[in-house]
Amino acid sequence: MADGHAADRPEPDPPRSAAAPAQPPAAGARPAYYAAGPGRWRDWWTLLHPPYTAWHLSYVVIGAALAPRVSLTALLATLIAFFLAVGLAAHALDELNGRPLQTRIPGPALVAVTAAGLAGAVALGAAGLARVGWGLLPFMIVGPVLVVAYNAELFGGIIHTDLGFAAAWGAFPVLTAYAAQTGRLALAPVLAALAALALSAAQRRLSTPARILRRRSVRVEGRVTLAGGQVTALDQRVLLAPLEGALRAMSWGLVLLAASLALARLA
């Protein structure tokens, strides 16, 4: 995302080839702070990116909660659709494209999960058309396109950017969830989508350097000398702590905010 300080911004991951080996992480580092150790079911847990999936599903709840009347059935269907499309399909496709999480999940299984996740999400969207009308159709079309174009880095990676991430996984869920409730858009969900865009941009600005430290760095060393003469050594752990601490706090904060809105509207 253009912010006027491009030289200070960590660059997004370069396009990955499906045949390219994963970059070696620093010694002893997991590919993500929530990643489990290697293993059949633990690989699937890691693939789901649990805190980030919950974070972006929170935007679905926030968008739906802004509707004049909230249908629990429509909300649950939208949550399931986004879990299938983002939690499963998008993450499986991303792992298939270069193995950034270093899982041992077979390629055919990742392809099957991607296809099944997108098909399930589209099927749920089609069911929603009968309830809210054709206003939902553009979101049904754009959603799968975003999943494939972003995670497979199509079109030269034009969507695989900070702005593309914030729009696809921040603003889009808010708008879709509202449209799934009402069949239209309004000013309130547009403003909420802009807020989600900003929060997702912040997420990207934190997660990009954290990924570089965990997945690409082989050695981190340095020091900070304060005005009083105190010297603090810099290593991977010291640099990761504020980045991942903020990501943890933001993910929990969005989940709790979404839960409070759901309780307030559905109680």
Question: Quick gist of this model?
Answer:
The protein has 267 residues and is mainly alpha-helical.
What's the helix and strand layout?
Blueprint: H1 40-47, H2 50-65, H3 72-96, H4 107-132, H5 137-151, H6 162-182, H7 187-215, E1 222-225, E2 231-234, H8 236-266
Antiparallel strand pairs: 1-2
Helix pairs in contact: 2-3, 2-6, 2-8, 3-4, 3-5, 3-6, 4-5, 4-6, 5-6, 6-7, 7-8
What does this entry look like structurally?
With 267 residues, the chain is mainly alpha-helical. It has one domain. It is 64% helix and 3% strand. It has a two-stranded antiparallel sheet. Helix 5 runs antiparallel to helix 6 and helix 7 (187-215) packs antiparallel against helix 8. The two termini are 39 Å apart. Mean pLDDT is 89; it is low at 1-27.
